[in-house]
Amino acid sequence: MCGVVGIYNHREAANLAYLCLAAEQHRGQESAGIVTAENATLHQHRAMGLVQDVFPPDVMVKLTGRNAIGHVRYSTTGSSTIENAQPFIVRGQGHWFALAHNGNLTNAAVLRKRLEEEGAIFQSTMESEVIMHLLAKQNSGSVVDRMTAALKQVEGAYSLVFLADGMLVAARDPKGFRPLIIGKLGDAFVVVSETCALDLIDAEFVREIEPGEIVLFDANGIHASKPFPLQQKKAHCIFEYIYFARPDSHIFGRDVYPIRKGFGRQLAKENPVAADVVIPVPDSGVPAALGFAEASGIPYEMGLIRSHYVGRTFIEPKNEIRHFGVKIKMNPVREVLQGKRVVVVDDSIVRGTTSKKIVHLIRKAGAKEVHVRISSPPTAWPCFYGIDTPTREELSAANMSVEETRQFIGADSLAYLSQEGLYWFEKLEKREWFCDACFTGNYPVPLTDAPHIMDLARSRKCSSPS
Length: 466
Ligand code: AMP
Hints:
- This protein is an alpha+beta fold.
- It folds into two domains: 2-231, Glutamine Phosphoribosylpyrophosphate, subunit 1, domain 1, CATH 3.60.20; 256-307 and 321-460, Rossmann fold.
- The protein has 18 helices and 23 strands.
- The strands form six sheets. The chain has a seven-stranded antiparallel β-sheet. Strands 5-6-7-8-12-13 form a six-stranded antiparallel β-sheet, covered by helices on one side.
- Helix 4 (108-117) packs across helix 5, helix 5 crosses helix 6 (143-151) and helix 9 packs across helix 10 (286-296).
- The chain is globular and about 70 Å long.
- Bound molecules: adenosine monophosphate.
- Adenosine monophosphate binds next to helix 13.
């Protein structure tokens, strides 16, 4: 998954991009990059690591110019290397441009093969580079015309920002899988993945870029166009509401926090259990656990404390410590758990390994019973539109029944939010506006690069009794 930012016409463009990326750090912790444009000159810095480590002051002073784009990355496709860090820059035929992309394309492999056969040389394994090559091949028309011609060839999810001489362009795929938002700061325009980034720099929320919209910012203001055929059904990613977006953001026309809390309320109504305390798996389970406690009347407590200061790499002790990976991040509060019937709420089970370790930690701290409640339906299908999920073979819900998963994680009971409960905030007739392929296998855009998954999903649906 990734976060993007674009700044148009601000004397501190790089600093603002930096701050917005810091606010979007939860969307990607592997690499970060900023490109600034100063007239016809580009300045770039990309590196592996967190925003605060990637951009020390001596780097920031070199990123001059009034326009900037930035990117934070968590690898979904392409390996975790510096070549795959964004933004990408392309120079040629007297032009240059830079691009940062959030989302996954579903026909990138097919397009890449074709481009390579035509002589294109790729610098990375990133599918976003395919967009760059398609753009570079368009040598006539306005920037928006060329971008439209390139984007018409790609399928899948993209929320992207694009810097060219004297302009910033932002575009969102016709289904609107990933969020993309316009803000304003004085005379400057800001484009971000999430509104929490606007809040940090005191920018005003203007509006979301609509699905299928291309928005150009230049010296004459904003120019919006919708060059793609109108889509009847949008496909906003429901997992943004469940897990990915920050709860203080406003995306897809709604605030994330109340929706996430409502998932917990709904979960409690659907799957009640007699218990003494409700605890979240911090931080992702907090709003849903609050909702669960509210609806069930069971007291809410912090039964697990998360350390916010451990990164992804740490020194492992030579003498093996059981469940070290989860223990370094999370420690139980014995006083809350001892002798209690505990409900522990998390947003999702992917492989099931985290839940297994957490149940073990809670039991070891003296809990009498451990009831796991998950504020989304079982994740049974991989995402091809930008969320980092493992293959279907690794997804616990694709391979085990709920009862088998309960046994695997060692809980006294396990229950998930239903598909109906998930849409508690939606009117029934609007259900089509979300992509929930990770739960249903209903992939809204063809998986050109992974036809076997699409075939499997179709065959499962045909054979299922519902
Ligand atoms: P697992 O051990 O694979 O079942 O992981 C489940 C945990 O991963 C839950 O606590 C989720 O909050 C978290 N999670 C869910 N989706 C993702 C994702 N795409 N990237 C990182 N963590 C995730």
